[in-house]
Specification:
It is a single chain. This protein is an alpha+beta fold. Helix content is 25%, strand content 39%. The chain is built from six helices and 24 strands. Strands 1, 2, 4, 19, 20, 21, 22 and 23 form an eight-stranded antiparallel beta sheet that branches. Strands 5-14-17-16-15-18 form a six-stranded antiparallel β-barrel. Strands 6-13-11-8 form a four-stranded antiparallel beta sheet, with no helix packed on it. Helix 1 packs antiparallel against helix 2 and helix 3 runs antiparallel to helix 4. It is elongated and about 110 Å long.
Length: 377
């Protein structure tokens, strides 16, 4: 019996019930009661199990519906995922102003490559001049006190050390401190690492305050690829595992690296875990925000798959109808992922191996589910 014939049968029963209710007369009223019983059996309805899930009771002769068994399939020894290239945050440095002053000269621009120790900007700051004057005074005092009274040599050294420490806290390097001959308000800032200028907020003539970020430098010698793996693949990966990466920009070049970090958190919505892969970057070809395809050599595993025809998408969720026996179906929420076999999806959660689900007539069953909810309300 097709779905249209079954639904027409229910409509006919309802019409017949109305006619008999208006004109049928009997001594006991049993004919009318018999029709009502038949009507109740033929209409889809929900079975409530207390704290258990609601079950949809369907007619035994409902046509157009077939079932399939959810199965496990073998996973290959290569785990593939996609990710995005980012800077290794351990090799990113922010250059900040530690004094109040003004930018006198800019020596680098956005995206420039600079080497460690290279001059990048000149600041004008009375704070620097004051600290340098204190250092020179402490240096002179230390020399005179040590000559006049050797017993005061320790005190003199402590004064000089305090003045030197103050200059270091202002960002002046030891070589610059040793070269100070006179107090001057101009101070040359140097790059703390080699890398590219990824952020430039320094403008000539602009005022700066302690804590203002002037530049951000990042090195591209090694980069990170941040990618996602499914929760049930977590046991197949580990820190230090080798991988290969390919980008659309350089499809013929394979970049090599290892898994450096595995997130301790699982996304509750997608059931994926984030991993960070440290990848070698010869000739600085890999750029932040590029997309990459990652292949990780892993031990073989298994995945749960279901035909796409078994899925119903509603309210931003996927549902399947699971056969619980005796013409009863359970509507169950599932989380799915992509799968390399056409017309199949990978089940991340919600089903177990051996579950029987509706695979043909799913939309018809879904309509009956909503009809039963409408009848029960």
């Amino acid at each position: 019996m097709t779905a249209s014939v079954a639904i027409s049968r229910w409509v006919g029963v309802l019409v017949l019930t109305g006619l008999l209710g208006g004109g049928a007369v009997g001594c006991t009223g049993s004919p009318q009661g018999a029709v009502s019983d038949q009507n109740e059996l033929q209409l889809p309805k929900l079975i409530h199990q207390g704290t258990g899930p609601e079950l949809l009771q369907i007619p035994a002769d409902l046509g157009g519906t077939t079932f399939t068994t959810v199965r496990l399939v073998e996973l290959p020894g290569i785990l593939e995922t996609s990710g995005q290239i980012t800077f290794d945050d351990r090799k990113v440095a922010s250059i900040i102003s530690r004094v109040t002053g003004r930018i006198e000269e800019i020596r680098v621009s956005q995206w420039d490559y600079v080497r460690r120790g290279q001059a990048i900007a000149t600041l004008y700051s009375p704070d620097i001049m004051t600290a340098e004057a204190e250092y020179l005074q402490a240096k002179t005092t230390s020399a005179s006190m040590s000559q006049a009274s050797p017993s005061n040599d320790a005190f003199a050294r402590s004064m000089l050390e305090a003045a030197t420490r103050k200059l270091e806290l202002l960002g002046i390097e030891p070589a610059q401190i040793a070269a100070i001959k006179t107090a001057a308000p101009n101070f040359v800032m140097h790059a703390p690492i080699s890398g590219n200028v990824v952020q430039n907020q320094a403008l000539r003539g602009s005022a700066v305050n302690p804590g203002d970020v002037l530049y951000s430098l990042g090195t591209l010698e090694d980069v990170w690829i941040t990618a996602d793996i499914y929760e049930d693949d977590l046991a197949r990966v580990r820190v230090g595992q080798e991988l290969d990466a390919v980008t659309t920009a350089y499809p013929d070049q394979v970049f090599h690296g290892t898994i450096a970090r595995i997130s301790p958190n699982v996304d509750p919505n997608s059931h994926v875990v984030e991993i960070r892969c440290q990848v070698r970057n010869p000739n600085f070809r890999l750029k932040p925000q590029m997309l990459a395809r990652v292949k990780i050599v892993v031990r073989p595993g298994q995945a749960l798959v279901v035909p796409l025809g078994a899925l119903v998408f509603e309210s931003e969720n996927y549902f399947v109808y699971v056969d619980t026996g005796n013409h009863l179906l359970e509507r169950r929420t599932v989380h799915i992922g992509t799968w390399n076999q056409k017309d199949y999806a990978r089940v991340i959660s919600g089903l177990n191996p051996g579950d029987r689900v509706v695979v043909r007539g799913t939309l018809q069953i879904n309509a009956l589910w909503h009809q039963a909810h409408g009848e029960s309300s």
